[in-house]
Amino acid sequence: MTVYLRSLETAVPPTVLIQTEARDVFAAQPGLTRLGTRLVGTCFDSAAIDTRHTAVDELTKDFQAENPRFFDAGTGLLLSPSTKVRNDIFAAEATKLFIEAARKALDACPGISPAGITHLVTVSCTGFFNPGPDYKIVRALGLNPAVQRYHLGFMGCYAAFPALRAAKSFCEADPDAVVLVVCAELCSLHVRTSNDPDTIMGSALFADGAAAAIVTALEDPEEPALLQLDHFETVLTPVGEESMAWNIGDEGFEMVLGNYVPHIIDDHIIGALEPLLAREGALLGLPYRGIRHWAIHPGGRSILDKVQSRLDLSDEQLVPARETLRNYGNMSSATVLFVLRHILDLPPAEGGEGGGERICSMAFGPGLTVESALFTKLGSVQRGVPKRGEAAARAEESAGAESPQPESALA
Fold first, then answer.
1. Which of the following is catalytic: 125, 157, 171, 187?
2. Is it true that 3-216 and 227-380 share their CATH fold?
3. Could you confirm whether 157 is annotated as catalytic?
4. Residue ranges of the alpha helices (H) in 50-189?
5. Chunked in runs of 10, what are the mean pLDDT values of the chain (411 residues)?
6. Model's pTM, two decimal places?
7. How many Cα atoms are found within 13 Å in the side-chain-facing hemisphere of 388?
8. Under CATH, which number does the domain 3-216 receive?
9. Which CATH code fits 227-380?
């Protein structure tokens, strides 16, 4: 049975974070050692990020909080709210992103009504609350109260793939199933000042965003599918368990992102791809760049560099991943869906009809876990993932601004 992705939509909070300004604020914190200050400059400048988004409007320089919890604009100090404070904000702000992305995915499929959704899969690793985002989506969008709900929590950056794989399994088990998958992450809730290299790297990379998709085996001639979901595979590398982790601390969640992670990926990416490509014999002997599109999770610039070099991919094949990183940063589980959306926005291949273009996709997370997938691009939506600064421009236009510019922010 063939299972399709019928829509893929994204959402980001309105506050835009400018990387150079964030670097200057973090570098000016009084508790930093000389080495810590140098690491801040290096990590922020080498991240290949221009802008990110945050749900914490208090991080904006112009936002004056009466009782600041994250940033004191008067003193320029980054503060250290408790995990409870951060999680309370997650419950309020993540709900908005979950609902916005889900609504957009439904709106992009006029032939599917909210009541027609049979399964709902939500994903996040940056906060917890219950009744959770699955419940909130059901209530806000008027889904059937009997919809089957599943939440994948705390898996990390690769979690969109288990969610899509589960959706595919539901559709294969029930030909009438229509599955709504929604990933939303508020990584910026957990930024903090520190001399720890992993914490500094996390503050330089992570951001907030959401993405939602509708998956079904049902076909609609009037609404062609965007992707065919072909195969998924999971591989654990033999090393790396201590190199990437996500722990809960008293002052937010704590990222472990060792500088050896790109080297682990470099050493093991070929082996990690073998089970996936073996699903189709014609792909096993093909040069990697012979697969037209590569949707690589941009965990960081150095990871993308290692993937491109090891697989001998062209610069063009890495554009969707690099542009997603540049414009949005690392939004954990939602990020690879932004990369896929970028690929869907591309026009058909020259001389082609736009269908049948293969996509190989990969994401990496704690373990070290490598999730991979093969898709077939069936068409181009060309509605566009918001390009750099467009979200801020739209927000200012709606407020009557004459000259839209990215909102100045901190982290």
1. 157
2. yes
3. yes
4. 83-107, 133-141, 160-173
5. 97 95 94 96 97 89 80 89 96 98 97 97 97 98 98 96 98 98 97 92 95 96 93 94 87 83 93 95 91 96 96 98 98 98 90 73 94 91 45 39 36 29
6. 0.91
7. 14
8. 3.40.47.10
9. 3.40.47.10
